[in-house]
Write a structure and sequence with these properties.
alpha/beta; 12 helices; six-stranded parallel beta sheet; 493 residues; three-stranded antiparallel beta sheet
C-alpha cells in the first residue's frame, strides 16, 4: 500500500474527490431513505386512523344490527299481539231502520214472545248467509244487531192499521227482541225528523272502518235518503263489506245501487209491503177518544202502490169501504182498535188524510206563506174557536182535504164533499183540522198543510197544557214562541 507521503498531490486530490463523491452519494441515499421513511410513517398513520375508523364503524354496525334485531323482535311481538287483537271478537253489524223495516205481523202480535222469535229467526238467517255467502268471515264471528226507530210513532201506525189491538204491544215486542240476545238492541230515537237516519248513518261510518267489524248488513230498503250515504263508496274492497237487506222493495235510487252492493231478502222476517192504513178503519177522532195516542212522526218514506193507494207507515188514510159511522162511545173510554179480522164487520170514524206527502197540487193554486219564529218553528195563522160550531162541523164528517185544499184524490171518499160551506163554516173546519197534530210537527214546510203545528192551549214558554200527558200534541209543540221573524213565500205549485 502506497503511503500518503509517497503520493503526489494530484493523486491525493483525486482520491479526495472520490471520497467526497461517495460521501455525497451516501448523504443523498440517507436523505432519500429519510424521506421514504417519513412517507411510510405518514401512510402508516393514515392507515392506522382508517383502521380505527373501520373498527368504530364495524362496532357501530354491530350495535345497529343488534338494536335492529331487538326492534324487529319487538315489532314482531307487537304485530303478533295486534293480529291476536284483530282476530279477537270479530263481529258483523246489522243496522236496521225500524221506521220502515218492520218485522212480520205474526211476530209483533205475539208481543214479547214474538220479539224473541223474531230475534232468533233474524240471527239464524244472518248466520246462514254468512256461512253460505261469506266464507272469509271467521266461524266465531258474533252478530251485533241495532234497530233504530221511533217507538211511539211505530206503535201508533201499527195500532191505526189494525195490526195490533193495544199500543203497548210494540214495546213488549222490542223488549222481547232486546232481551233475547245479548248483542241485540232496539233503540227508541223518539219523535223528530231524520233522527233514526242520522244515528244509523254515523254508526254505519264508524263500523265500516272498524277492523273488528267483518261485514255490515244494512236494512234501509224503504228510504231513498240512504242512497246519499251509499253513493260515497265506490272501492270494491269497501262495497264488498256491505250487504243491503230488503224488506219492502228497494226505492228507486237504492235499486240502482244494487250493481255495486250485494243485496238479500230474508223470507218471513220483515214485511215486504208498507203498512197500508188507508184501507183500514181508524179509531174515533178526538171527539170520543182520550188524547193518549202517540203523535205521528215523519220518519217514513211513503210510496204509491201499484193500485194507486198511497202507503205510509205514519200517515192514516180513509177507507173507501168504511162509509158507516162508528157507534158512539158515551163512556169516553178508548175503544179497542179494530183488527184485520174485524174490518169486514165494523167501521170506525175516520180522520182526514194527512197533508204530507201530498198528491200533486192543482196548477191554479195560489201562492202561500209559511211563518216561522227565531227557532225555525212553524207558526200557524190564528183561528177563531167556537165550540158549538166545531162540534156541529165534526158531526158532519166533512172532508178536510176537499174543503181546505180542494184536491182530494180519493174516489170514493168516505167523507162528505156535498155540503156547500159558508166562509164561517170553512173557518170552523180549519179550526177543527188544527186540532189534529201534523206528522212533521213544527218543521213542516208544506204550504197547504191544514193540520196543527203547535198546541193552541199551551202557554208560551211552558211545555204542557190543561190536558197534561193526554194531549195529542208532543211536548216539543207546547209553549212555542209566536213571534214571527221569518216568512217563506211559496209560489204556485
Amino acid at each position: 500500500m502506497m503511503s500518503l507521503q509517497a503520493m503526489s498531490d494530484q493523486e491525493l486530490r483525486e482520491r479526495y474527490d472520490i471520497l467526497q463523491k461517495t460521501d455525497n452519494h451516501k448523504n443523498e441515499l440517507v436523505q432519500v431513505n429519510l424521506l421514504a421513511n417519513r412517507e411510510l410513517l405518514n401512510r402508516l398513520g393514515r392507515i392506522g386512523s382508517e383502521y380505527q375508523q373501520v373498527v368504530l364503524d364495524h362496532q357501530r354496525e354491530i350495535q345497529f344490527n343488534r338494536d335492529g334485531q331487538l326492534r324487529e323482535r319487538d315489532l314482531r311481538e307487537k304485530l303478533r299481539r295486534l293480529e291476536v287483537s284483530m282476530d279477537r271478537d270479530p263481529f258483523v253489524m246489522v243496522l236496521i231502520d225500524g221506521d220502515g223495516m218492520i218485522f212480520e205481523e205474526e211476530y209483533i202480535q205475539k208481543g214479547e214472545m214474538g220479539g224473541k222469535e223474531a230475534a232468533a229467526v233474524l240471527w239464524n238467517k244472518i248466520n246462514d248467509h254468512i256461512h253460505d255467502k261469506l266464507p272469509q268471515i271467521p266461524a266465531n264471528c258474533k252478530i251485533v244487531t241495532r234497530v233504530y226507530a221511533n217507538m211511539k210513532g211505530l206503535a201508533d201506525v201499527c195500532y191505526r192499521s189494525g195490526m195490533i189491538d193495544r199500543l203497548g204491544l210494540i214495546e213488549d215486542f222490542y223488549r222481547g227482541f232486546t232481551g233475547s240476545k245479548i248483542l241485540f238492541d232496539f233503540v227508541d230515537v223518539g219523535p223528530g225528523k231524520d233522527r233514526a237516519d242520522d244515528k244509523i248513518t254515523e254508526l254505519f261510518k264508524l263500523h265500516l272502518s272498524d277492523f273488528h267489524c267483518q261485514h255490515i248488513f244494512f236494512g234501509c230498503s224503504h228510504d231513498n235518503g240512504y242512497a246519499r250515504l251509499l253513493e260515497q263508496y265506490t272501492d270494491p274492497t269497501v262495497t264488498q263489506q256491505i250487504t243491503l237487506l230488503e224488506g219492502v222493495p228497494f226505492e228507486r235510487e237504492l235499486y240502482s245501487l244494487q250493481a255495486r252492493y250485494s243485496a238479500v231478502r230474508f223470507d218471513n222476517v220483515f214485511r215486504t209491503n208498507k203498512i197500508n192504513i188507508y184501507m183500514q178503519p181508524q179509531y174515533p177522532t178526538a171527539q170520543s177518544v182520550p188524547r193518549e195516542h202517540p203523535a205521528r212522526t215523519s220518519s217514513d218514506n211513503g210510496a204509491v202502490s201499484s193500485n194507486g193507494v198511497y202507503q205510509s207507515p205514519y200517515q192514516p188514510l180513509v177507507s173507501p169501504n168504511a162509509a158507516s159511522p162508528a157507534p158512539s162511545n158515551p163512556s169516553g173510554m178508548n175503544p179497542k182498535a179494530p183488527t184485520w179480522a174485524s174490518t169486514a164487520n165494523s167501521a170506525a170514524l175516520l180522520v182526514s188524510p194527512p197533508p204530507t206527502p201530498a198528491p200533486a197540487f192543482s196548477q191554479s193554486a195560489t201562492s202561500a206563506e209559511i211563518r216561522r219564529n227565531r227557532y225555525g218553528q212553524r207558526i200557524d195563522p190564528p183561528t177563531v174557536y167556537d165550540k158549538d160550531e166545531v162540534n156541529r162541523l165534526r158531526s158532519m164528517k166533512l172532508c178536510n182535504v176537499h174543503y181546505l185544499r180542494g184536491d182530494c184524490p180519493y174516489d170514493p171518499c168516505t167523507h162528505s164533499h156535498k155540503h156547500k160551506l159558508t166562509n164561517n163554516e170553512r173557518k170552523g173546519l180549519a179550526t177543527l183540522a188544527r186540532m189534529i197534530p201534523c206528522v212533521y210537527g213544527s218543521e213542516c214546510d208544506e204550504p197547504k198543510c191544514f193540520y196543527g203545528h203547535r198546541c193552541t192551549l199551551s202557554v208560551i214558554g211552558k211545555k204542557d197544557c190543561i190536558f197534561g200527558e193526554n194531549c195529542k200534541f208532543d211536548k216539543s209543540l207546547h209553549g212555542i214562541d209566536l213571534n214571527v221573524v221569518k216568512t217563506t213565500k211559496i209560489g204556485k205549485n
